[in-house]
Amino acid sequence: MNYLIRNAIALFSEQHPSATDIRIADGRITEIGRQLTPTNDYPEQIIDARGCVIYPGLVNTHHHLAQSILKGIPGGINQGLGDWLASVPYRFWPHITPDLMYHAARLGLYELLRSGATTCADHHYLYHRDTSQELEDAVWQAADDLGIRLVLCRGSATEQGSHKGMARGGVVPETLDQVMSRMEHSRTRYHQEGGNAMRKLVAAPTSLIHSSSPQSLKTIAEWAGQHGIRRHSHLLEVDYDEQQSLQKYGMKAIDYAADCGWLGPDVWFAHLVKADDYAISKLAATGTGIAHCPTSNCRLGSGVAPVIELQQAGAPISIGVDGSASSESGSMLQELNLTWLLHRAVHGPDATHLETVLHWGSRDGARLLGLNDLGEIAVGQAADLVLYDIRKPRFSGVHTPLMAPLLCAEPTAVKHSFINGKPVVRDGQVKGLDEAELVASVQASVNTLLARVS
After folding, report:
1. Phi, psi at residue 376, to the nearest 5°?
2. Sign of the four-CA dihedral 157, 177, 122, 339
């Protein structure tokens, strides 16, 4: 089906700042303008965008979907990262079955869709010696069922090392041979090439510093390079990363990453809260990017990532929600709003501009993921679009209506959402999902998980 979206209040397109209408054919944007009329070349459905502003679909570059059923764990609410890892994710995830994983993934993806995201990069690290393939398959299936783009960042750990969560959770890591054979299986089964792919695989050791040997990192980097696979991990989220890198490898964490082949334009790291001037210069010089996760960094007391300094140095910037066990709203729009606010609090009112932050959360995130055919409202781009309904009391006093969703943030109202020109949210309802059934399934999953752990 092709679509003609008409009568929007405004849309975020630098090439077409006064446009109100968008035509979609064969999954791509074919025309942008005002007062567009239906074509006689092919049938198309009219979408009335009256009362809506249109953004490019938001691109979440770092998530942990499994954590969607681990919100507000009492023992971890007031803990920092190291203790929280042991109390929350690594306490529970060895007990997550494929069925529980499927419901957790559906919940996380639902939350992303209803906040305006159309692409999710999930750092899925639920792998150990005896992991079944079905656990990963459940994530791919959930994304397929909801029609969202999924970049599965395949976590791995080849040693417990200095990873507090793994050590206290008694998790037996994979061997390097297991990691490589399992990743190759996922690549051949799921990975798609191209800048408009619905499925991509990324090589993503859970931690460069704490649970991966230098040889395993080099082997994974070489394999990724051979197959055109991008790379991702956590780095410098807290001071412990730098301390352990110096102690274990005799070099700074950023130099250890470089020594193992883990810097470059096909690499991005989550957090980078503790990146100093030296690390920033190396990241920028190599084109290595960041997935900035401000809510999680605030929630865990980790600090504020030097995003403005990274931007000024020329490093690629993107935005991530992180897992809902440390970012309970699960909202991409909240992350953009907090990014806009947080760095103004630190650097002053001119530090972040709304347009820049929106680019970080859409176009720039897509490019980091190798999805170069989306992230902008422009002719020829994939039709990943979100229509926010701003005919609500809380938006009625906003003098810049195009920026109302980002300015006001949650609660928001996504009226329609398209991915590859296909509707995934229609009239405020996520397609392929019954909300009452989802709630019942998630609550049953939580009860099952608690019974397993206790």
Report:
1. -135, 155
2. positive
pLDDT band at residue 454 under the 50/70/90 scheme: confident
Chain segment 437-451, per-residue pLDDT in tens: 999 999 999 999 999
Structure-token pair, residue 201: 């695989």
Q: What is the mean pLDDT of residues 53-64?
A: 98
The whole-angstrom separation of Cα 264 and Cα 289 is 8
Residue 390 has a pLDDT of: 98
Question: Residue 128's pLDDT is what?
Answer: 85
